[in-house]
Specification:
mainly alpha, elongated
Length: 90
C-alpha cells in the first residue's frame, strides 16, 4: 500500500461555488473602495493645503475629481451585487 491512501480527497463542500465567488467579489470591491477613499482623503488634504497656501492646486483638484468619480462608480457597482450571506472565517 502506497501513501496514496493517506491523501485527502477534496470533498464537494470545499469547492468554490457561485455564492462564494460573489462574496469574494464583494470583498474585492470593498478593498478597492477603501483604497480609493484613502487616496481621496490624501488628495483632499493636499488640495486644501495648496489652496490655503496660495499654490496652484488645479492638478491636485483634478486628481481628486478623478478619484471621487472612481469611488462613486465603485459604490454604484457594489450596490448592485447581492448582499453577503456568509462571513469570512480566519
Amino acid at each position: 500500500m502506497s501513501g496514496s491512501d493517506n491523501r485527502r480527497r477534496a470533498s464537494p463542500a470545499t469547492k468554490p461555488d457561485a455564492g462564494n465567488k460573489r462574496v469574494r467579489s464583494a470583498e474585492d470591491f470593498d478593498i478597492i473602495i477603501g483604497f480609493l477613499a484613502f487616496w481621496g482623503l490624501v488628495l483632499l488634504v493636499a488640495t486644501v493645503s495648496m489652496e490655503v497656501t496660495g499654490q496652484p492646486a488645479l492638478g491636485w483638484a483634478l486628481g481628486l475629481l478623478a478619484v471621487v468619480l472612481a469611488l462613486w462608480g465603485m459604490l454604484r457597482l457594489r450596490s448592485k451585487l447581492p448582499r453577503r450571506t456568509t462571513r469570512r472565517v480566519g
